[in-house]
Amino acid sequence: MFKIVPIKAFSDNYIWTIIQGNEAIVVDPGDPKPVIKKLNELNLSLKQIMVTHHHFDHSGGILELQKAFNCPAYGPKGGHIKGITNPLNDNEHFNVFDQYFMAMASPGHTNDQLAYFCESEPNPILFSGDTLFAAGCGRLFEGTPAEMHNTLSRFSALPLNTLVYCGHEYTESNLNFAIEVEPNNVDIKNRLTEVKSLRDQNKVTLPSTIELELKTNPFMRCDEENVIQAAIAYNATTDNSPEEVLGTIRNWKDNF
Ligand SMILES: [Zn+2]
User: pTM of this prediction?
Assistant: First the structure.
């Protein structure tokens, strides 16, 4: 079985690195330099690249890594991301070492976004890119609130113990917003205390779990009465459909 470690890139990106034996697979290598440095340090060769979406901070290192390691890159179809050798459809399976991963179309942040899910034991794994963050969700650059809601609903149905590896260290600021939306949510309060302590020590706050997100992520809780009421208080024209609630709190967060 493999292990998963983060490589830090730019100011707050994580390039998740799956390691088995002396081989590695990287998810979203926006910057090739820290990847090459880490692989050299650990004496690993790069077997494969996985990319969630076209944004440069997730895909910008593909070509340089392929030059060095001549490896395939799995990711969104369409030909708009240079270096993708294995374009994937929704629900398509592929191998990551000896495990099957499934690509899940997850529009909202971008139209091309894919998440990667593996039913591994004891915990399933989700690489959620910039769609589902710990206690938050990605900005709606290309997609609609309804698309993001559909995507997050699909993630909600995954096993509760699924480990969620997202693309950025945004957890503390997301929780600071979450507690604005739900000031009396004890799970958010407790998580914020834990996360502040981790960040004070410059530690990674991930992975999360689907269970924790269902309790503390306002964007996964758009059908909860407290979240609906907070959205209506922020914008009185909001109706209580989860899509509208998501759109309102996303807009609130954008201006937070
Ligand atoms: Zn992005």
Answer: 0.97
